[in-house]
């Protein structure tokens, strides 16, 4: 197992700051790279990220920098915590500064529109000399920063990498479980954002617990159906990166995707909601990509189609719910253990 002398986190938003702070609290030398000088100064001098985690003082040893080369110099482990829309651009800048065999962990829960690439695939293309893993789970950044007990998943086929990241991040409030199903873990993190939007919408409409339970369970069935069709292990969806993350984001107003859904349910326009949010809600783009893929591959995804109809085909929620209630009634559980 590798014991790193220095770690970098790229992306000084909510999640990047939260995980950088865990590692600094664990006594590691951590540099958080961001593109805003004022915010970097604020972290270095006042130990706070006022724009993203204003209520949580950060570890005084956590360093911030806007110089990418300096931030990653001498690092054996680098975490990527920028939105999916920026991952490839950041990776292209990063490649020249990454040593052979450096561990590179993607935490980004999104999909690249061109060729439907997940972020670990983007990183592997751009930085072939790195050992790549994926971190995903029910990880609302504000709860992590507040010290709420949290679990996550590190996924890689490389068991030494998994063990290294488990040890690096493990704390009295943070547990890290290992998986070898990189594709399933990563896809779970991206897909659940769609269903968080739907759940937020349902909450705004005052739905009861029966409806919410049905919605979340059918969401899990639908996302697993898609992922298994694409080659993931259905069992992964019973873990923290599947049902765990689905529960957290479908139930919490701390989820940006849930908040987008809630405001859609209140009748606001998507463009206004996204502009006001000021943070990334990956589910909006993921919805378009999954709708396109499920149509192309003939994968039955009624919840995705319904949300797509509401957002992009301007159907009313009442209309799409009505149509779903009278569609064919199907099996409850689709997968069987051999
Ligand atoms: N793995 C997990 O369990 C979790 C993953 N996530 C995922 O992590 C990703 C980031 O989420 P989160 O931190 O919450 O998002 P935020 O919106 O809070 O922050 C995004 C950060 O990325 C920065 N950024 C965007 N583009 C660039 C760029 N080209 N170069 C440098 N920095 C850039 C932004 O900088 P600026 O402030 O200057 O705009 C901002 O600091 C998302 O994909 C999200 O889904 C989120 C929570 C948990
Ligand atoms: O992925 C997350 C928590 O696990 C964060 O969700 P949002 O991106 O919807 O805020």
UniProtKB/TrEMBL annotation:
It is found in: Cytoplasm. It comes from Dasania phycosphaerae. Sn-glycerol 3-phosphate binds at residues 109, 137, 192, 245, 255-257. The active site is at residue 192. Residues 6-160 form the Glycerol-3-phosphate dehydrogenase NAD-dependent N-terminal domain. It catalyses: sn-glycerol 3-phosphate + NAD(+) = dihydroxyacetone phosphate + NADH + H(+); sn-glycerol 3-phosphate + NADP(+) = dihydroxyacetone phosphate + NADPH + H(+). The gene is gpsA. InterPro entries: 6-PGluconate_DH-like_C_sf, 6PGD_dom2, G3P_DH_NAD-dep, G3P_DH_NAD-dep_C, G3P_DH_NAD-dep_N, NAD(P)-bd_dom_sf. Keywords: Cytoplasm, Lipid biosynthesis, Lipid metabolism, NAD, NADP, Nucleotide-binding, Oxidoreductase, Phospholipid biosynthesis, Phospholipid metabolism. This is Glycerol-3-phosphate dehydrogenase [NAD(P)+]. GO terms for molecular function: glycerol-3-phosphate dehydrogenase [NAD(P)+] activity; NAD binding. One of its GO terms (biological process) is glycerol-3-phosphate catabolic process. NADPH binds at residues 14-15, 35, 52, 109, 141, 256, 280, 282. One of its GO terms (cellular component) is cytosol. The lineage of its organism: Bacteria, Pseudomonadati, Pseudomonadota, Gammaproteobacteria, Cellvibrionales. Belongs to the NAD-dependent glycerol-3-phosphate dehydrogenase family. It is an enzyme of class 1 (oxidoreductase).
């Amino acid at each position: 197992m590798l014991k790193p002398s220095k770690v970098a986190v790229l992306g000084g938003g909510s999640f990047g700051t939260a995980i950088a702070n865990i590692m600094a609290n664990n006594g590691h030398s951590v540099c958080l790279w961001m593109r805003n000088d004022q915010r970097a100064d604020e972290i270095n001098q006042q130990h706070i990220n006022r724009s993203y985690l204003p209520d949580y003082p950060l570890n005084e040893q956590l360093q911030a920098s806007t110089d990418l080369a300096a931030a990653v110099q001498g690092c054996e482990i680098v975490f990527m915590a920028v939105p999916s829309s920026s991952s490839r651009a950041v990776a292209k800048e990063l490649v020249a500064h990454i040593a052979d065999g450096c561990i590179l962990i993607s935490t980004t829960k999104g999909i690249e529109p061109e060729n439907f690439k997940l972020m670990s695939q983007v990183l592997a293309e751009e930085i072939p000399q790195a050992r790549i893993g994926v971190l995903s789970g029910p990880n609302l950044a504000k709860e992590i920063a507040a010290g709420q007990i949290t679990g996550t998943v590190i996924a890689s086929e490389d068991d030494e990498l998994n063990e290294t990241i488990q040890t690096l991040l493990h704390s009295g409030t943070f547990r890290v479980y290992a998986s070898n199903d990189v594709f399933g873990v990563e896809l779970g993190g991206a897909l659940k954002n769609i269903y968080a939007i739907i759940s937020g919408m349902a909450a705004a409409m005052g739905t009861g617990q029966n409806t919410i339970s049905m919605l979340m369970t059918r969401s899990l069935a639908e996302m697993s159906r898609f992922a298994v069709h694409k080659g993931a292990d259905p069992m992964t969806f019973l873990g923290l990166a599947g049902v765990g993350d689905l529960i957290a984001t479908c139930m919490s107003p701390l989820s940006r995707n849930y908040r987008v859904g809630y405001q859609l349910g209140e009748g606001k326009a998507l463009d206004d909601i996204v502009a006001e949010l000021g943070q990334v809600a990956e589910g909006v783009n993921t919805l378009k990509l999954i709708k396109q893929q499920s149509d192309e591959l003939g994968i039955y995804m009624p919840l995705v189609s319904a949300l797509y109809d509401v957002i992009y085909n301007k159907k009313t929620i009442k209309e799409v719910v009505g149509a779903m209630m009278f569609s064919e009634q199907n099996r409850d559980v689709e997968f069987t253990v051999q």
